[in-house]
Write a structure and sequence with these properties.
The protein is α/β, with parallel strands linked by helices. The longest helix is centred in the last third of the chain and has 17 residues, at 498-514. The protein has helices at residues 52-58, 126-137, 160-169, 182-186, 190-196, 212-217, 223-236, 255-264, 288-291, 295-305, 322-331, 369-384, 388-401, 417-425, 433-437, 456-459, 476-490, 498-514; strands spanning 5-13, 20-28, 31-38, 42-49, 95-99, 146-150, 174-179, 201-205, 239-243, 245-246, 269-276, 316-317, 347-354, 360-362, 440-446, 464-467, 473-475. The mean pLDDT is 89.
Amino acid sequence: MFRISTISKTKSLCPNCLKILDAEVYSEDNKIFIEKTCSEHGTFKNTYWHDAKLFEKTLAYEPEPHRLKNLKDAENGECPSNCGLCNQHKSQTILGLIDVTNRCNLTCPICFANAAASGTLYEPTQDEIRGMLKNLRKNQPVATPAIQFSGGEPTVRSDIVELIKIAKEEGFTHTQIATNGIELANNENLAKELKDVGLNTVYLQFDGVTEEPYIKTRNANILDKKIEAIENCRKVGLGVVLVPTLVKGINDDQIGDIIQFALDNIDVIRGVNFQPVSFAGRTPSDKVEQQRITIDDLVNDVEKQTNGKIKKEAFYPAATVAPISELIAAMNNEEDEVTLTCHEHCGVGTYVFKEDSGEIIPITDFINVDKFMKLIEDSIPGIEKNTKYSKTKTLAKALKNLPKTIDTDETPSYIDIIDLLKNIFIKQDYLALGNFHMNALLISCMHFMDPFNFDQDRVSRCVIHYATPDGRIIPFCSMNNIYRESVESKFNIPLNSDRAREIIKNINKAKKEHGN
């Protein structure tokens, strides 16, 4: 046995009673585990990562905290018992989430939100949603830039188009909906209506390229609906991100096929965000260890299932790009820029580019990411001095060293990468990013936590936050493991109320109009 080595002391949750417990993250037999003991329910030892070497490699990419200034004082207890956000939180809100309903047109057995099964109706009014949007935009020193409407299934609301319009009115530069795609498939006008009011991205649940995974994970054979939804988005130029929920033994053998499907439809599909199943909500918890997929499993499977075209070394922790935001803030003489500083073990990503020949080129084939980010980091102090001489000298040095970070022989044929980077970072021509994204696919993985692998260190750096009707802003994993039931209970709509009857009336009207 490889000797046990402690990596960190943290806090976690009892999977039975959700009590906050002391926990230890440690390596053993080249794997990473998290262990804690509840005085009532005993000791829990669960897999954190399967590959200790990849886990340790990511430790080098721990970002500096970028705190918000208008955090609330922690009133009692310890993280995550003070979410709101409290002053123990270390990251900004990169993406705000609002559950616009707990209704759903599916009853998926792996739903972390336990949608359509609580026996209560949770559906904030437009005024409540506007209030939550305003709250997210009040974040200081940087307002939340992006919003996702989720649920439940957000498209079951008859006013989902109006909600996107409201989000744009409140200043969100990026809007998206997390959807199973059924309504987008059934209502061919919906994609256009959403695009017309400013929807940027359809975050589409997509568990595989064959029927079997959907039958097991969604209790419905709905692959054809996914294809129809994508086609309706393609017709109006509405970008799609595929979101596969991965469950070992069910669809983890389709990772490569899903990536290839995305590449084959790269004109409409902008990315694939793999999400290993989280054992929270309605997801069965009796097979945690057998069905657990970790981030390192994903990147290893990508390499295997793409026959080595996309190697595991192509993936970097999401926060690797934080220096870019810091440089932009310095160049604009701003106090701060919204900066991705999530925990290094929350997620990874890479870009791959597709040539007309079909060849796949990962970004790491032509950009030395470590050297490039070091160049940016080294440039920030000179820019921050905010004198003409210092800026000129710093930019000149950066321009001289930029080619040393690029292998132009491996660059996609349709990109002049040196000129593009000059335009972005020297001239601040962000329209040049459009050329970068052409025929580019973002492949990422976000591993959301459940009570078994919950780590306080990670949740304190969360950058994806729910807004709730009572004015709180709650980290994603805290919301889904601790707060969701109480929020929905507090703001539920009595089923015999006038508003509930109005909602039911709209449901019946929509079914009649769309024949479902």
